[in-house]
Automatic annotation (TrEMBL):
Key words of the record: Oxidoreductase
Keyword Mitochondrion (UniProt): no
Coiled coil: none
Name by which UniProt lists this protein: Pyridoxamine 5'-phosphate oxidase family protein
Matches recorded under Gene3D superfamilies: Electron Transport, Fmn-binding Protein, Chain A
Pyridoxamine 5'-phosphate oxidase N-terminal domain residues: 26-108
Keyword Electron transport: no
């Protein structure tokens, strides 16, 4: 399993594209989870990078979090608003694990207040998912070709150029 900090160091092409897309969309991504019948579910999500981890948080009791409670596998896709993918595109695959640490939740609530103005101080975060990143890919269009960068832990990144 790979934390965000480890991924950020090990994926110098993909991680900056992910951060750039998060900034461009106000942290909007789409998360794919698995429904009880095995079919994928796509839901909007605003992940955050905080204290070296990628956090998959949101409103408790939603179907996406019930899915993750049952099966922790996910695919996170940066929101694409440009059909020419001019600003890049990233997918992260992984598993979540619930982190129940009151002091961490307090720090995160302060972080959210500063970053978004949303005041969740004193709230209980259940679940509060950290993402373990298992693989990733990015697409960037440059100079008339498309570069697909693929990352796996222990292997690093490789670029496949499509003409």
């Amino acid at each position: 399993m790979t934390t965000w900090s480890e991924f950020d160091t090990d994926a110098p092409i993909i991680a900056p594209v992910f951060r750039r897309r998060l900034t461009a969309t106000g942290n909007l991504c789409l998360i794919a989870t698995l429904r009880t019948d095995g079919f994928p579910r796509i839901s909007p999500l605003e992940p955050r990078v905080f204290e070296g981890e990628l956090w998959i948080g949101g409103m408790p009791g939603t179907t996406k979090f019930r899915d993750l409670d049952r099966d922790p596998r996910f695919c996170l896709h940066t929101a694409t608003v440009d059909s020419m993918v001019g600003d890049g595109d990233v997918k992260l695959w992984g598993r979540v694990h619930d982190v129940q640490d009151a002091a961490l939740h307090e720090r995160y609530a302060e972080f959210l207040l500063e970053e978004t103005g949303l005041d969740l101080r004193g709230e209980v975060f259940r679940p509060f998912y950290a993402a373990d990143i298992l693989s990733a890919s990015a697409v960037e269009v440059r100079d008339g070709h498309m570069d697909v960068t693929i990352w796996k832990p222990g292997v690093g990144e490789r670029v496949v150029r499509k003409h």
